Amino acid sequence: MAFKLPALKFDPAALAPALSAESFSYHHGKHHQAYITVANEIVAATPALQGKSIEEVTKIAAADPAAKKLFNNAGQHFNHSLYWLSLSTPGSSKPSAAVSGLIEKGFGDFAAFKTAFVTAALGQFGSGWVWLTKDGDKLAISTTGNAETPLTAGKHPLAVMDVWEHAYYIDYRNNRKGFAETFIDSLIDWSFVEKRIEDTTSLDAGV
Ligand code: FE2
Description:
Strand order of the largest sheet: 2-1-3
Bound molecules: fe (ii) ion
Helix content: 40-55%
Order of helices and strands: HHHHHEEEHHH
CATH architecture of the largest domain: 3-Layer(bab) Sandwich
Strand content: 5-15%
CATH topology of the largest domain: minor pseudopilin epsh fold
Largest sheet: 3 strands, antiparallel
Distance between the termini: 5 Å
Number of strands: 3
């Protein structure tokens, strides 16, 4: 049993210039793969973890202060797996009426939602993530640092933007705001967000 690097659902050149093929080559092919390699090494040496999904391993590791290395790498595998699924080719996705309703209940309108998302991205000091979750009948935004994930708070994240510098430095240099604005304007896959509300399938069952 081992976790695997998920295939991208788009050609890695198809999101340029919003995100370049070079960026995916490093971020997906090297950074994400490195987290998976370390997580698999630890799981292979820990019989109690074998056969568990990435969500289960991440939650187990989060609850064990001695398992910080496993948490950092398993959490990053989960977070990145959701991040790739949160992306679509530029301009290909718009919120459905149902998703627009969740946005309006949470933020008033789409412009206010975008402002809140970009503000959250800029407010996350250092490396981390900006998450979308469903809170009752509203869409909600939250942030975490490093490999932290809403999974460990019992939440079901719908989508995420990576705000580690490795996610945007090749294409945006230090312009995190520009990356966050582009993510909301043209990259986020709203169809995936809507599907994920009901879909609790593991992002990597580890088989
Ligand atoms: Fe990343």
